[in-house]
Amino acid sequence: MHPGQQVAVGSPGRRQRQRVPLPLLLPAVAGLLFLVLPLAGLVIRAPWSSLPQRLAEPGVLTALRLSVQTATVATLLCLALGVPLAWLLARVDFPGRRLVRALVTVPLVLPPVVGGVALLLVFGRGGLLGGWLDATFGVTLPFTTPGVVAAEAFVAMPFLVIAVEGALRGADVRYEEAAATLGAGRWTTFTHVTLPLIAPGVVAGTVLCWARALGEFGATITFAGNYPGRTQTMPLAVYLALETDLDTAIVLSLVLLAVSVTILVALRDRWLTRP
Amino acid sequence: MTPPTERSTPLLDAHLVVDRGAFRLDLPLRVHAGEVVALLGPNGAGKTTALRALAGLQPLAAGHLTLAGRVFDRPDRRLHVPPERRPVGVVFQDYLLFPHLSALDNVAFGPRRHGLSRRAARERAARRLAQVGLAGQLDRRPRHLSGGQAQRVALARALAVEPVLLLLDEPLAALDARTRLDTRAELHRQLADHPGATLLVTHDPLDALVLADRLVVVEDGRVVQTGDATTITTRPRTDYVARLVGLNLHRGHADGHAVRIAAGVALTVGDDLHGEVFVAFPPSAVALHPGRPDAVANTWPATVGGIQRHGDNLRIDLTGPLRVAADLSPAAAARLHPVPGQTVWAEVRPSDIRAYPTGNS
To answer: Which DSSP string do the residues of chain A spell out, in sequence order?
Structure first.
């Protein structure tokens, strides 16, 4: 979020008189360049003339389709599990709630590769649940497309949970009390009152979650491998292309950049400009 | 609207005991069918806590709550019926209309939860909204309603579940003065039509006096006075009530027509009483003189404290043996020309003083 943006919104008249001290201005500009230059380099170095052909290559489309599909399924999974989890954290006072909240955020700071290893240890063939899943349901996660979904959901779910929990904490619980006095039980209140009230927060969390799932690399390559058409998502394809064909890597990166920018623009009104 | 006889069974029979840290609410409450009772008290007196306890949003520490013969709270038997299963409708202070629903769907929300079909619930809601004069605003979202309209939607929503007990929390506090006047009259009509019991929580004495058949004054979690509007306005029993109704109130010991006030001043009163009494008189009955007046009875020296405008008059706070408020007309003020710190003589005619025993009347 840009602090300058808020100043512009809050008090346009005062900005004129504000002088920014050099010790703050110089590192700020340097930081901005550091963030923007690599992206500019990507755009400048892109093979624009051969872009359409490269985009049309079957490998690219396959990776893009797989990425969008797995990220979407992973996001739906995160919604189904994460929204109730956020509600539990925000509305129910149970012992160990702070510990649970800390645990939920662990995947945020955990290196994704470690997450992938951890997933292997649990859902791998010899893992805690993997053997049982295989024997009972015939389900194998590692090195499969569902494994990609699992890896992405593992890494992306905290984004959703944190956004939704924040929205729930910000929502006025008295609306829920009003619903109760009108005869609504807790489930009906949740679906008919709470969810509509926190819809902007859920949308923001969903988009962030989806974006994170789309860009997932470390946990995916560790847990699901790098099989084209099955587990090779866009970031994995970029990584692989980097070793053989730089231009293809740039094109794939551009696609991911375009998706990210689109998401930021879509979110700008609801989320980024919120004070 | 006529208060039922004392012998009939009250619709609401409750003794609310709630502990919140150092604060304890201990409130016996009975409301008959068709009766409107106002819970009047200063901020922090426990009014809203009482309302939340009645709605089931706040569990009781002790006591009981019975509505129409059914028990809803008995902490000693671990009985607590949750809010969604109580025949109670609530109009919240800032209405809490669901912002994502139209006025119609806000009102239909309750009936729908009570098992009506979507169509039947909406029909009932439309009828309710028509009754409060909002037939043309059915599709409006709450943010497009004026304060007075939102208040009426909130009332329609609470009444749409046909509650045995209707609770209103400061129903007019969120409105501006002009809207408040109209809405108060409209609310009075609506409450008169409600066949169940009504409890109104307010810190505004005017709302309580206009809307309620009976007032229960609470201070610091306890009932300090109950009665109809006339009793409360003429015979206040606490400083808070006296201030609300604009009377000077003092406690003293009566011996016939003479009442010795604690500070050593004696007042002569019209009533013939013995024992501990309250004396009450309006600020307008206090006359101020620059020097000692000729009258012998009911005069005392006083010091001018604060001076404020009060309507067309000046309100003078007097210190000295008696803390008293006096109202001066502009003409009287011009003659006396009061300044803070000035010593004046105060006088009250015996016929303007009302004295009554401190024991329960």
So the answer is: --HHHHHHHH-TTTGGG----HHHHHHHHHHHHHHHHHHHHHHHHS--TTHHHHHHSHHHHHHHHHHHHHHHHHHHHHHHHHHHHHHHHHH---TTHHHHHHHHHHHHHS-HHHHHHHHHHHHSTTSTTHHHHHHHH----TTSHHHHHHHHHHHHHHHHHHHHHHHHHHS-HHHHHHHHHTT--HHHHIIIIIHHHTHHHHHHHHHHHHHHHHT--HHHHHHT---TTTT--HHHHHHHHHHH-HHHHHHHHHHHHHHHHHHHHHHIIIIIT--
